[in-house]
Design goal:
Layout (H helix, E strand, L loop, with lengths): L2 H35 L4 H24 L3 H36 L2 H12 L1
């Protein structure tokens, strides 16, 4: 197996554990607390909810730290290129708008001229 395949398998197994462990602990703790306090099923449900929150947080942290540096660099370069394209398009649109104003004037200028002609 090549390095990228092993890396993918490691990430997948970590993701699986980051879901199973918090949920399992939440369920076991919730069932035990329900037995102690006779509150069934509320503490079990609370344990499941807490386990899900911890699992999502853990997965997000894991995925954020497991990104390949080459992927991060590529994403940053793509973001910069798109920002540059947006800026160029905005500048081009501004120049086109200014050109149209130079040719035809603005509505405000026309309104002012109409008011002066009728006065």
């Amino acid at each position: 197996m090549d390095k990228s395949t092993l890396r993918a398998l490691a990430i997948m197994s970590q993701l699986g554990l980051s879901i199973a462990v918090p949920l399992g602990v939440g369920i076991i703790l919730g069932v035990w607390l329900d037995g102690q306090f006779h509150t069934s099923p509320w503490l079990t449900l609370a344990g499941i909810a807490l386990g899900m929150v911890v699992a999502v947080f853990t997965m997000a942290q894991l995925l954020r730290f497991q990104r390949d540096p080459e992927d991060v660099a590529r994403d940053q370069a793509n973001f910069a290129a798109k920002a540059q394209q947006r800026n160029a398009a905005a500048k081009s649109q501004t120049e086109a708008d200014q050109h149209m104003l130079d040719l035809f004037g603005s509505d405000d200028q026309q309104d002012n001229q109409d008011k002066q002609n009728h006065a």
